[in-house]
Amino acid sequence: HASAHANGPLSGIPIPDLKRVLAGPFCTQILADYGAKVLKVEDPKGGDDTRLWRTAAEKDIWKPTGKDMSVYFCAINRNKMSITLDLKQEKGREILFDLSKIPTWCQVENFVPGKMVKMGIGCEKLREINPLIIHAGVSGYGASGPYSHRAGYDTIVAVEAGMLHITGEHDGPPTRLGLGLTDMSTGLYMHGHLVLGATNNRHSRVQNRAELKEILEPIMSAKATEVWLAVLEGSGLPYTPVNTIEEVFSHPQTAARDMCQGRSEYWAYSPSGPNSAYTDTGNHSGTPVKFSETKPQLRRSPPSLGEHTNSTFKGMGFSPKEIGAMREQGIL
């Protein structure tokens, strides 16, 4: 009900986020978009690896701010708070146990399976403190099987699963998909490309696919994309132009689904302008799954490392002196 969830269907649900890099943080960003109170737990010595995953063009943008931040990090960590906590120290683990006592608590992590158990903070240990705890873990190979202990990033798992083998030209090398491919290839296409899916029950037609490709390619490339769009309009066939990233963000369907959000919520340092003003870094994707009575909102920009450490621990009952002492000991 909208009255019960004014800020989203997950409004107020606390979720300590022990994830880093991409898959995990993207998961918790979606939960945060729906109103969950996501508390990103980061290592005091540097935090999430992606804070410093910057392109060459970004280095001068972020340096004057003094923030450990990158566009990559910003894209998957909005609407979250950040605290620093060294889980390798006993006191750090004790604080995590205190957090686990919060009702309706959900823990999200992407450690290699078994790592949290070795650290003494596994799911079963936390359930001794809070039997209702919900544990969600993601890893490259899953929680069971002979490869479960292996670390796995996006490219590693894609290669293992055969995705690169089936991507690219038939007689070419394996091809890795990447978000930057559309941007890099935009200037190569004079008229643009078109994706046309013509489906029917005459399966024997695929026997001459190679020959048809040679016949159709010069015909399709002889006219601009806009011409073919006009020809195909109303035909009932599935078709679409190959859009650039800029065209995707300006697409009417993107706007209708509220999938382009938050220019004013993402900040980067600008060396020009009065008082070294902050300017927005660009558009960001909205949340795809919609609810009838609530709407995902951008409530806060991606947090600086440990930005909410003091306020969080003060709310847990720690005094400023205790917080300062834990900082000196490297716990926070």
UniProtKB/TrEMBL annotation:
<dbReference type="InterPro" id="IPR003673">
    <property type="entry name" value="CoA-Trfase_fam_III"/>
</dbReference>
<dbReference type="InterPro" id="IPR044855">
    <property type="entry name" value="CoA-Trfase_III_dom3_sf"/>
</dbReference>
<dbReference type="GO" id="GO:0008410">
    <property type="term" value="F:CoA-transferase activity"/>
</dbReference>
<feature type="compositionally biased region" description="Polar residues">
    <location>
        <begin position="277"/>
        <end position="286"/>
    </location>
</feature>
<comment type="similarity">
    <text>Belongs to the CoA-transferase III family.</text>
</comment>
<dbReference type="InterPro" id="IPR023606">
    <property type="entry name" value="CoA-Trfase_III_dom_1_sf"/>
</dbReference>
<dbReference type="InterPro" id="IPR050483">
    <property type="entry name" value="CoA-transferase_III_domain"/>
</dbReference>
<keyword id="KW-0808">Transferase</keyword>
<dbReference type="Pfam" id="PF02515">
    <property type="entry name" value="CoA_transf_3"/>
</dbReference>
<feature type="region of interest" description="Disordered">
    <location>
        <begin position="277"/>
        <end position="320"/>
    </location>
</feature>
<protein>
    <recommendedName>
        <fullName>CoA transferase</fullName>
    </recommendedName>
</protein>
